[in-house]
Amino acid sequence: MGEPTHAPICSVCLKSGILCQGCDNKLKEGRISRLDVEVSRILYELAQKNRALNTVNFKRGVGEGDLVVLIVGKGEVKSIVGRGGRTIKELSGRLGKKVRVAEEGAELRKLAQDILTPAHVRGVNILYSGNNEVYRVRVPHRDTRRLPAGADAVQSLLTKIANKEVKLVFE
Ligand SMILES: [Zn+2]
To answer: How far is the CA of 42 from the centre of ligand 1 (A)?
Structure first.
């Protein structure tokens, strides 16, 4: 038996259907979300059959509409995606949502590319307006329909994850 999946909830809660006092408090205080709990448990279960998942540090999930982005540790995207995207398909089926994976602390361009795929990111520009910085993620027009969700949802996810004001620009 390998180590349990590194997750926002403790190893007892990964295996049980209820939350211990400590994890329940984290949930109530908003330090973790229901999505974090759900994804952690699914990953733990999948890790029993797929050892590569034991090395994945799942940090948090961020959702918007039908799209969920899972944030993992540096260099771990490959392990969670799985061969031919198997793990992601499984997660997607269980959650009933589209799933994308991104690295914690990734620079915006890489983050955007991981989330927007199969749409392409041409580049990121910063637009200064007054005291605000707006990060413009440039996407080719023809890729509009390849976005994993509506432009508004994707924009809002990027803004939440990067903690910057992000706008998608089609050109
Ligand atoms: Zn717990």
So the answer is: 15
Cα gap 61→157, rounded to integer Å: 11
- Decide if domain 1-104 falls under CATH 3.40.50.1980: no
The pTM of the full predicted model, rounded to 2 decimals, is 0.91
Distance CA 154, CA 171 (A): 17
How far is 86 from 71, CA to CA, in rounded Å? 17
Using CA atoms, how far apart are residues 84 and 89, in angstroms rounded to an integer? 9
- Indicate the CATH number for domain 106-171: 3.30.300.20
CA neighbor of 42 nearest in space, from 2, 85, 89, 74 = 89
**Per-residue pLDDT tens digits for 45-87:** 999 998 889 889 999 999 999 999 999 999 999 889 887 888 9
Domain ranges of the chain: 1-104, 106-171
Q: Rounded to the nearest whole angstrom, what is the distance from the C-alpha of residue 32 to the centroid of ligand 1?
A: 12
